[in-house]
């Protein structure tokens, strides 16, 4: 399973990219608004840092508006993927963009049927939201497993991005359930690095080393 970072913060993207762990980036309107910066400028900076799919979301609700927003975004760089909400208008936009060779990531997926529809419309990626399902006492990881099974049985090549990841256990569970990608906030990537036994091990090695060098 590949790892993407779910943020529009360029410093976080750079810090994660420097560790060599990133295969792509996802953004959404909330994450972009949080940064308070020009969206196009942010995307231009991101494509220079990460060589992989960079999702940029449209905010129009009708297919025509979505396609109109998507075209200039897709011209920023070949790695830009247009993120489209899972609606009937969204599916129309995905279909039109696929015919033009523009890759899409269908977002706000909460059922296996939504994922199947998005894939059939021509989406390159689908983003089931694990955390938001868990929030309403539904099993987000089970949804990933269902979609992975359906795509596998029917030879569907659309990639599954496990989204709305809240903690490291979501990442492990998504990988076991068959997600191709997990898109994680920087804080989760950071938590994944750490283990108390690693810290204790380093302390002990250094203490032993220092004892030896004092002899
Ligand atoms: C996915 O691409 C979304 O940006 C994201 O994962 C949403 O996560 P949230 O539920 O934490 O807002």
UniProtKB/TrEMBL annotation:
Its EC number is 2.2.1.2. One of its GO terms (cellular component) is cytoplasm. It is found in: Cytoplasm. It catalyses: D-sedoheptulose 7-phosphate + D-glyceraldehyde 3-phosphate = D-erythrose 4-phosphate + beta-D-fructose 6-phosphate. One of its GO terms (molecular function) is aldehyde-lyase activity. Keywords: Cytoplasm, Pentose shunt, Schiff base, Transferase. The active site is at 83 (schiff-base intermediate with substrate). Pathway: Carbohydrate degradation; pentose phosphate pathway; D-glyceraldehyde 3-phosphate and beta-D-fructose 6-phosphate from D-ribose 5-phosphate and D-xylulose 5-phosphate (non-oxidative stage): step 2/3. InterPro entries: Aldolase_TIM, TAL/FSA, Transaldolase_3B, Transaldolase_3B/F6P_aldolase, Transaldolase_AS, TSA/FSA_arc/bac. Belongs to the transaldolase family. Type 3B subfamily. Transaldolase is important for the balance of metabolites in the pentose-phosphate pathway. This is Probable transaldolase. It comes from Alicyclobacillus acidocaldarius subsp. acidocaldarius (strain ATCC 27009 / DSM 446 / BCRC 14685 / JCM 5260 / KCTC 1825 / NBRC 15652 / NCIMB 11725 / NRRL B-14509 / 104-IA) (Bacillus acidocaldarius).
